[in-house]
Amino acid sequence: MPRPILATIHSAALRHNLARVRAGAPDARVWAIVKANAYGHGIERTYEALRAADGFAVLDLDEAERVRRLGWRGPVLLLEGVFELRDLELCSRLNLWHTVHCDEQIDMLAAHKSHAPQRVFLKLNSGMNRLGFAPERYRAAWARLNALPQVDEISLMTHFSDADGERGISSQMAVFASVTKDLPGERSLSNSAATLRHSVPGSDWIRPGIAVYGSAPDFPQHRASDWGLQPAMTLASKIIATQDLMPGDSVGYGSTFVAERALRIGVVACGYADGYPRVCPSGTPVLVNGIRTRTVGRVSMDMLAVDLTELPESGFDSEVTLWGHAANGALLGIDEVAHSAGTLGYELMCALAQRVPVAVQD
Ligand SMILES: Cc1ncc(COP(=O)(O)O)c(C=O)c1O
Question: What's the CA gap between 24 and 274, in Å, rounded?
C-alpha cells in the first residue's frame, strides 16, 4: 500500500483560470508562465490544459526543451534569457525567444554564429532593480541589438514589483512609457496582479503565473474566488492514527502545543518532507472529511496532527485536505495555509515534494 498522500492537479481549473486572465486583457496574447515546473504543478501535467495559451514562458533551456518535446510549436520565451554563449545554439535549434536584460547577453548574441536571426525581449529595469537595463541605458541597448544581424524582432518588456500592493504600477508604467516612446516592437508588462488589478494600456503579451494556478496574487486583500479563480492543486492525505489527550498533554516535537482540555487528535500522513511548511503554527486551517479544523503541534518530517475533538465521525482513514478541494465540495485555499506560514501560495505550490504522487483530473 502506498502512503495515502496525493496531490491532484485540476485541469479544468487551469483552463478556467487561463480564460479568466485572458478576459482581463482581451486584446493581449497570453504567456502561460510554466517556470518552476509550472509552479510545482508539472509542465507535462499542465500542458494539455494550458495549450490554449499563446506561448509558454520558462526559466531555462531544460524547461524549454520539455515544452518542445510535448509538441508545442508556438512561442517559447526564456524569462531570464541565456546564461552562456552556447545556449544561443539551442535557442536557434528550438526556435526560442529570449529575454535580453544585460550587456553580456548582447555580447553573446554578437558572437553567435547565427543560423536564423532570433527574436528577443529587451528588458527595462523600470524600478524593481532585479533584471533589466536602467532607463538611461535602455535605448542604447535597443540600438545595439537592432544593429545585429543575429537579431530580428525586438520586443519591449518590464516587470512590476508592486502590482499586488499599495504602490501599484503607475511609477513603473511612467518610466516604461517614457523610455520606450516611439520604439517599435510588441510590449509585455503584466504579471497576474497587474492583469487582475490594473489597466495596462498597449500590452501585447501578458505574463500571468500565479492566477493560472488559481491562487490570489494579493491575498489576504483578495481571495482567489474574489478574482473568479479556481484552485488547480489539491493536497490531500489521510489520518493514520488517533490519540486521546488529557489536559496538560503535549503534541509533537518541542511540546509546543499543550492541551488545555481533553482532546482527540488525528495524525496525518503529511509532513514537511512532502512540502507542507514546517513553520505552520498550531491553528493552521485544515479540512477533515471536508470540515474545517486546525493543526496542533509542530509539523514533523512525515506527519502532522489535527484536532478531531469536534469531529466525532472522523478517525483512522478519514480524508484530510491540506489545501484545495475536499470530496464533499468544501474548499481550503492554499493562500490561507500559506498566510498561516507567513508566506505566499507561490511558495507552497512550488515546494510540493517529489515524493508526493500526483494525479491529473479534469
Ligand atoms: C518576469 C516574470 N514575468 C511574469 C511572472 C509571473 O508572475 P505572477 O506569478 O505573479 O503572475 C514572473 C514571476 O515571478 C516573472 O518573473
Answer: 34
Q: Is the CB of 125 under 6 A from ligand 1?
A: no
pLDDT digits (tens, 9 = 90+) for 133-145: 999 999 999 999 9
Give the distance (Å) from ligand 1 centre to CA of residue 57. Answer: 9
Distance 246 CA to ligand 1 centre (A): 48
> Ligand 1 centroid to 139 CA: how many Å?
24
Does residue 123 line the site of ligand 1, with CB under 6 A?
no
Helix/strand/coil (H/E/C) assignment for every residue in the chain: CCCCCEEEEEHHHHHHHHHHHHHHCCCCEEEEECHHHHHCCCHHHHHHHHCCCCEEEECCHHHHHHHHHCCCCCCEEECCCCCCCCHHHHHHHHCCEEEECCHHHHHHHHHCCCCCCEEEEEEECCCCCCCCECHHHHHHHHHHHHCCCCEEEEEEEECCCCCCCCCCCHHHHHHHHHHHCCCCCCEECCCHHHHHHCCCCCCCEECCCHHHHCCCCCCCCCCHHHHCCCCCEEEEEEEEEEEEECCCCEECHHHCEECCCCEEEEEECCCHHHCCCCCCCCCCEEEECCEEEEEECCCCCCCEEEECCCCCCCCCCCEEEEEEECCCCCEECHHHHHHHCCCCHHHHHHCCCCCCCEEEEC
Q: What is the mean pLDDT of the chain?
A: 97
Q: Is the CB of 159 under 6 A from ligand 1?
A: yes
The tens digit of pLDDT for each residue in 202-236 reads 899 999 999 999 999 999 999 999 999 999 999 99
Query: Ligand 1, closest atom to CA 131?
Result: 1
| Active-site choice (39, 253, 272, 346) | 253
Has residue 53 got a pLDDT over 80?
yes
